[in-house]
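Hi support team,

I submitted a single chain yesterday and got back a structure, but I'm not sure I'm reading the token output correctly. Could someone confirm the output below corresponds to the sequence I sent? I've pasted both exactly as they appear in my results page.

Thanks,
R.
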Amino acid sequence: MNALLRTDRAIVTPIPGTTRDVIEEGANVGGIRIRIVDTAGVRETVDAVERMGVDRTRASIESSDLTIFVVDSTVGRTADDDAILAEIAGKPVIETWNKADIAQEGLIPSGAVAVSALTGQGIENLEAAIVSVATHGQTAAIDTQGAVVTHSRHRHALRSARTHLDEALATIDQDLPADFISIDIRGALVALGEITGATATEDIINEIFSRFCIGK
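Hi R., thanks for writing in. Yes, this is the structure output for that exact sequence:
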């Protein structure tokens, strides 16, 4: 989490069981807004509080769209790791081997993402893998410099505005009167007003046509 956020959000120590609660934070990864959930590691424990953390981890995995499964590269995948992976089989998983900067050569398997949360090594590769899962591999379609529309109502309003504008352009091409064009301009403004909260008034329409000459 800290490496992806580029800030110290979660407490990190070499002592197992440090993370007890679920920590959530929003992040922008490759132009996509995601919500990262950092959880306790899944292991058998007699500590009642840590066991509650493990239960919350399992619940988070169930509700998540993607699991970043972290393996300690200095240890390798354990029997417990294999058991957890078997539990979440069928769900999107990125197997991520941390501490790659000090890992034994040849230990990290092909297909896993090798990273070092300490040095930042491989974090860009992890981000690319997250984007690939989130977009089903259609990364070329993402404009990382543009706005990302995540609300279905906003998408509908933008599509409606575009339809009205396309119809207005078609009306101009047909050399029809400005009154016909204004109907579609007004429709586009109303659709955009559903996003901004603004109301398209006659004053706005008049302002557009006072500055815009329509003709052949």
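A quick pointer for reading it: The radius of gyration is 26 Å. Let us know if anything else looks off.

Best,
Support desk
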